[in-house]
Amino acid sequence: MTRHKPCRIVLCGSALAFCLIVLSLTVSMTLAQEGGRNRMRIRQSEPNVLAPELYLEQLRLKITLVDLPGASDPRSYWEGTYQLYFVSEAEHEKALRELVKGASKGGAVALDLSLSSFPKKTLLAEGSFKKSALASLKDRTFILERIAFRARVPDAERTKEARLLLSCNVKIYDAQLKQTIYRTRLWDAQAPLMEDAKNPERDVARTTVYSNFYVTKTGDVYESQWTREGESTSW
Amino acid sequence: MKAALSLLVLSFICSASAPARGQSKPKASTAKPEAESTVEEPSRLNSRIADVLRSTAEGAKKWNDERAAARVQAEVADLIWEMEPNAARTLLITAWDKASSAREEKRAERSAYRNESRQTEVRREVMMVARRRAPDLARRWLAEMAEEAGRKGQERGVFDDRTPRSTVLLDMAMAVAAEDARAASDLAVESLQDGVSFGLQNVLLAIQQQDFELAQMVFRRALQRLKAAGMQDPNEILILYSYLYTPGKVQAANTSENRGSFSLAVAQNRPQVKAAADQSPQLALEFLKTAAELLLSAPPPATTGAMEATARAQLSVIGTLYPQIAKQLPELAAALRQRALQMESDAKFSPAPAERPADMPEYRPGEKVEDYAERRIDLMEENAKREANPLRRDILYAEAAIATAPARYERGWSLAGSIQDEQLRADLKNWLTYRAALHLLQANEFDRAYTLLSKNAEAAQRAASLVVGAQRLVKAKEVTRARDWLQEAQALLRKADMDESWTRIALGIVSTYGQFDKWAALEALNDGVKLMGRFPVGAGADERAPLVKKFSVKTISDITFGTNGFGWRAAASAFAPEQLESVLDVLAKIETPEARGVAIVALCRKLLDPKAGKRN
Q: Which of residues 189-218 of A touch B (CB under 8 A)?
């Protein structure tokens, strides 16, 4: 299922300069995953269904800086670190249950999807990157091929609802904005399935894990984990 | 008639060439159309200003920035209308065409919350002039916009107005509400043709500040609209609810799977009005009755093609209105409760509790806001300490530092001190210092603010603080000290690595000097003129102190809200009529024609004397 996490607070310049708050209560501005593909495709959950055929031998990690105002300025750069984990469906459910249990009666619960919430997880890939020429989309894309996947997941854990956790931290310097942008993001994706790049209405066996960033002319940052292939530099 | 019109256009073009200093009436004005034959002789100053304006408008035809051109043409049309109505009308039509043909910036992304269109903004400015000067044009253009809206049908954010036309109408209503509440109410009622828009509650509040009876009339028209059209979007009900019960805070209907989640728009400058429901319980009762009936008569969610979203939205509206309805209309409340139970299964809410961000501790009953805020910072600091990844740890420390209150800058500095990334550490410390200095200046704590701002290594932030301080010092009648602060800001400007922030600072220096020394203002303008061409600030831009954002993390406050004086409108006010030629000479040095034109028009608007008579 493609999930869209809305921004918690957005500032916008209407006559009275309103700030928009989701879940209220916060005091400053956030602009998180935001953009045109605000759709949410509902997919029926299929708990405890083994689907070994969907687990490919290898995965690919693709981290893309889709565009930024200072792309053609040679002083712009971006760097980042990543960690990719597999978490079994049972472990994922258990961690969420623990979090829910900790909530006081009737209150909200902090679904802190930090890596520490998942004690049993399998590290699939870890590393860092730095790119200092950002003129083309290719220049702005980091790809890690051949991440061993199927062999790292025990037979009994190859279920449809198992998860991949991608922790992605980036630092982007935009020389046109004269601004350094820092973002940290933990993506929680269905392990064996992903949105088909050619037909977003259907899922296919996962080949790639995505993390996409986009810097607008005003320095806002959009983030997503959507399937993203092709040459488009629009969000 | 056609020939007369051609002559008129020709006369406009001929007289629009670059005016020489001291030039008197343009030669082409000898072609006196009938409509302009009865006007009086203008003052010499106005005559000169008209020449300058016409020349600028003519030049705008060649500008690359079509929106800037449309803005300037509309403004010039407005300014010369009394003197040359026909030429002004032609110019206004040109401005509209330019605003309409200006391509929207390539921006594929649409916000789920609020989308703004630069084309709509410019059209609003042209329309404002048309409404005042040529209502027939305004009516024609609004009809055009309605037709376009029907064709486009873009996806709306929850806090978008119903259509671009309603945005324009409500923006115009806001602009005139303070001086002409009746006109504002007419515009607001007109916007209801497209439904109840987010901006309506804004306008209702503005009208209420002038005339509550009028506001009630507009509100009742909105209710009539809802009754006639049915509940097309539950947000329409919540917009009206917000006006009655929570002025300045608008909740949107929830369509997410989390039952407790909702989006809230909060005005940064909350209106100081008594809630309309308290002033007129009868109006509130009418609303509650209408809203309840609409909710009860809405088609069942299962028949709408978007069952879950419809059910969730309606349930969230019922949840918001229920306490008020239960108090005043118990029978309808019972029916709504029944309706809510029926829709419960359609909504398919997630059984999991609502998410709370990991950096927010649970509320303790009766806890003071400040205590909660401190506990929150503690939690954020703990989260940062626990983080193993260096980049993520730095970001978490930065977010914690930003979450501190402006007056608690020392704690912010301490948190920033734990950041390993040198650049982020330095930028963040400067930003915390800038925020704290502005905070102290708001309270006229000049000595403390000066000590603090002197520690800011970011020159633009230090200079902007000095200008804000100088503005406050002038108000406090400490002119000598204000001059010292401005001179220090100017010294920083001379050494600066230029960007748009510095243009704003330069304009801030000009406008502040203008309050007590108009010739120093002229010198300051001369100092900043090169900068103003290279890094232009638009005429329509806000006049706040620059944010000077050197870094960005997920959360960052809007710290310069409430400051002003850093734009062309304020800078243009710095000068006296006798300085016109000197100022024009300086502005002529601005290299970019758009920036030069914007500056000239702002100046002319300030110096044009409306009482000095009309021109033939």
A: 214, 216-217
How many Cβ atoms are within 10 Å of B615's Cβ, its own excluded? 20
The CA distances from residue B129 to B122, B123, B137, B192, in Å, are 11, 10, 10, 22
Residue of A21, A38, A169 lying closest to B112 (CB–CB): A38
Question: Distance (Å, rounded) from C-alpha B502 to C-alpha A178?
Answer: 13
CB spacing of B261 vs A22 below 8 angstroms: yes
Q: What is the pLDDT of residues B434-477, one digit of tens each?
A: 999 999 999 999 999 999 999 999 999 999 999 999 999 999 99
Task: Inspect the interface and report whether the beta carbons of A180 and B392 lie closer than 8 Å.
Answer: no
| Amino acid at residue number B289 | K
Length of chain A: 235
* Structure confidence by residue, pLDDT tens digits, B104-131: 555 545 566 767 777 788 898 899 999 9
Q: What is the average pLDDT across B566-587?
A: 91
Q: What is the DSSP letter of A211?
A: E
Exposure string over A192-225, b if 16+ CB within 10 A, otherwise e: bbbbeeeeeeebeebebbbbbbbbbeebbbbbbb
Radius of gyration of chain A (CA): 19
Burial (CB count <10 Å: 0-12, 13-18, 19+), residue B118: middle
Q: How far apart (Å, rounded) are the C-alpha atoms in residues B298 and B538?
A: 47
Residues whose CB is less than 8 angstroms from the CB of residue A204 and which lie 6 or more positions away in sequence, other chains included:
A193, A194, A195, A196
Residue type, B318: I
In this structure, the strands spanning A208-215 and A58-65 are: parallel
Q: Which two tokens stand for residue B439?
A: 């905070």
Question: What sign does the dihedral A37-A38-A41-A47 (CA atoms) show?
Answer: positive
Contact B596, B529 (CB under 8 A): no
Q: How far, CA to CA in Å, does B152 sit from each of B108, B293, B311, B577?
A: 14, 32, 27, 48
Instruction: Give Cβ neighbours of residue B502 (< 8 Å, ≥ 6 apart).
Output: B460, B463, B493, B496, B528, B531, B535
Closest among B92, B86, B102 to B32, alpha carbons compared: B86
Nearest Cα residue to B561 out of A36, A98, A13: A13
ipTM greater than cut 0.85: no
The three-class DSSP label of residue A81 is strand
Cβ–Cβ under 8 Å, residues B463 and B489 = yes
Return the half-sphere exposure (C-beta side, CA atoms, 13 A cut-off) of residue A61: 23
What is residue A137's DSSP assignment? T
Instruction: Kindly report the average pLDDT of chain A as a whole number.
Output: 79
Q: Is A90 an 8 Å CB contact of chain B?
A: no
**Both ends of chain B: CA-CA distance in Å?**
20
Angle between helices B66-80 and B593-607 (to 10 degrees): 20
Note whether B202 contacts A: Cβ–Cβ < 8 A: yes
d(CA B215, CA A142) in angstroms, rounded, equals 57
All residues at 6 or more sequence positions from B60 whose CB lies less than 8 Å from its CB, including other chains: B68, B69, B72, B73, B76, B597
Q: What is the dihedral of CA B404, B410, B412, B417, to 10 degrees?
A: -170
